[in-house]
Design brief:
551 residues, mainly alpha, 2 domains, two-stranded antiparallel sheet, 4 strands, 2% strand, globular
Length: 551
């Protein structure tokens, strides 16, 4: 790697780690109900919102009630967004209907509604040629806030399961949702959006601009409230772009500084959650070890992808170059965001295998709001169990016993991603409806494109390889299943496990207890992540990107 690339990567990781050490304790105070600087402004708003929600916002919830509130909120949000999308032509304002070319069919509307309500923001359409401005603001931007806040709430509830003893409750979903929105996402989005506007990102409702280029060709330049969508898509780890070119479009990221700040918006909050975990559980060293394992996985992917893409300028935005494109690919594939600034379909086979593997790992290297934390801790729990058996130590993790019921939840969690990815991929490659979408590539590359689509959907990530034309009934329907499994199939077992841990009594550490707050256990976590993923997906990776690399 060049010195410039190494310096940029080191600076990025240093800023992420530094801000995580600051924001982690802040998140702990917010969700513990302690005083913060924003209380005088946000407390009155919180009271109004909780009063409007009603009795459900009062009292603690068991894991079952918490999970049901989470599912109900997501499904209602999906239905509301679907109605908005189906009535898109009734919304006033720009752009001119003549500029909109992709029809919002029933299956595409359903897919988009599920996508944004699950923070996947898988877009089987061109961003700037499909929806009116108000639909994007009222529908899509609103879900970027709400779905992101719901994911963060689940992550906090998961932490409470480790923090509490002899208490099967995990907090109140509606209170956590409101606090995640008011104290975390809203203030950060306001500051970030203002930064984007000052930096040149459009925030208007103007008609599309028609120009004649120097070569005499006609060109249409999309306008719109771009800044309002761009920052929250990254902050809420959603990723749906206003433009079809996403972060490669000069209106979305006009400067390298904007691109760098956008990557920080994706990474900082997920990186803060292990510190929050350490604060709320009283196990600060354990939180640091979890963050360390995340960063090690992140660096491994960053180095491999950069080495694979060095010299490959195909599909790269020349304003950013290879290093920025690599950083964006690794950050977004690890961050449940899916926004990109380069065409991943043009990456080398090894280069594209890295973001694919990141998603198959469960995006546990930072991850999304809440999802990355419980994915990494699930890896830690499995590592603690296996390592404990190997050396004859008690299978515990930070004072929580790993018995048969807990191990069943961990096993169920780890089976969801293989089921949601491999089964629809197998169906797609043996049916005409699946292979018909391979418009430019077949063979190993085509298999990678299909697998990438379902891995992205299951990871609630949303990024795609453009060689797959996914706007069809088959892909709109099957990716809906993958997105819902990725959202509920992972969150519900995580909440169930947290509920069991919260109900356990205290288990003091003794000489027979496996230490899980050490550097050696961090290595165990990293190895476990790769072993578990390899057992499920190595054959598919061999048939896809690895076979293509040796072709």
């Amino acid at each position: 790697m060049t010195g410039i690339a190494t310096g940029e990567f080191a600076l990025f990781l240093a800023i992420v780690a530094g801000l995580a050490l600051v924001l982690g304790p802040y998140l702990a105070r917010v969700f513990s109900g302690e005083r913060t600087l924003l209380d005088p402004v946000m407390r009155p708003v919180e009271r109004v919102l909780l009063r409007a929600i009603g009795r459900d916002a009062i009292g603690e919830m068991t894991w079952g009630r918490y999970a049901w509130a989470f599912v109900r909120f997501t499904l209602v949000g999906t239905l509301v967004l679907y109605v908005i999308l189906r009535a898109a032509n009734l919304f006033p304002g720009g752009p001119d209907p003549a500029e909109l070319g992709t029809p919002l069919t029933r299956d595409l509307s359903a897919n988009t509604a599920v996508s944004f309500a699950t923070t996947t923001t898988w877009q089987a359409y061109g961003g700037e040629d499909t929806m009116p401005y108000l639909v994007q603001l009222v529908g899509l931007a609103a879900q970027n806030f709400l779905a992101g806040a719901a994911g963060l709430a689940v992550g906090i509830a998961f932490i409470r399961g480790f923090a509490r003893t002899r208490d099967g409750t995990l907090g109140n979903f509606w209170v956590d949702l409101v606090r995640a929105t008011l104290w975390v996402l809203l203030p950060a989005a306001l500051v970030g959006t203002a930064f984007l506007v000052v930096s040149g990102v459009p925030m208007n409702f103007d008609p599309y601009t028609h120009v004649t280029t120097l070569e005499g060709e006609h060109q249409v330049i999309a306008q719109g409230p771009v800044a309002a969508l761009e920052f929250i898509k990254n902050l809420g780890t959603n990723g749906g772009g206003f433009f079809n070119a996403n972060g490669a479009h000069p209106y979305a990221t006009p400067t390298p500084l904007v691109e760098f700040v956008s990557m920080l918006a994706i990474a900082v909050l997920p990186a803060s959650l292990p510190i929050t975990f350490g604060r709320m559980t009283g196990r600060r060293r354990g939180g640091l070890v979890i963050l360390g394992a995340m960063l090690v996985l992140f660096v491994i992917g960053l180095v491999i992808c950069q080495l694979a893409e060095a010299g490959n300028l195909e599909g790269k935005e020349v304003r950013f170059g290879v290093a920025d494109s690599t950083l964006a690919a690794i950050t977004t594939s690890n961050g449940a965001t899916g926004s990109y600034n380069a065409m991943h379909d043009s990456f080398t086979p090894v280069g594209v295998a890295v973001p694919l593997t990141n998603m198959l790992l469960g995006e546990c290297a930072l991850g999304g709001l809440g999802t990355g934390l419980y994915s990494m801790i699930m890896v830690a729990l499995l590592g603690a169990f296996v390592a404990g058996l190997m050396i004859g130590r008690t299978p515990e993790f930070l004072g929580k016993q790993l018995g048969p019921p807990e191990l069943k939840m961990i096993a169920l969690f780890n089976l969801v991603t293989p089921i949601a990815v491999l089964i629809p991929t197998a169906i797609a490659v043996v049916t005409h409806a699946g292979t018909a979408a391979l418009t430019t590539n077949t063979g190993s590359h085509g298999l990678t494109e299909i697998t990438y689509a379902y891995a992205s959907s299951t990871a609630n990530n949303g990024q795609t390889m453009a060689g797959l034309s996914a706007n069809s009934v088959f892909y709109n329907a099957t990716t809906i299943v993958a997105m819902l499994l990725g959202r509920f199939g992972l969150a519900i077992p995580a909440l169930a496990l947290a509920g069991r841990f919260g109900a356990q009594g205290p288990r003091p550490e003794h000489r027979g207890t496996l230490r899980v707050d050490t550097g050696s256990f961090m290595v165990v976590m990293v190895i476990t992540a790769f072993v578990v993923t390899g057992l499920s997906f190595l054959p598919m990776l061999c048939l896809g990107p690895i076979a293509e690399a040796f072709h």
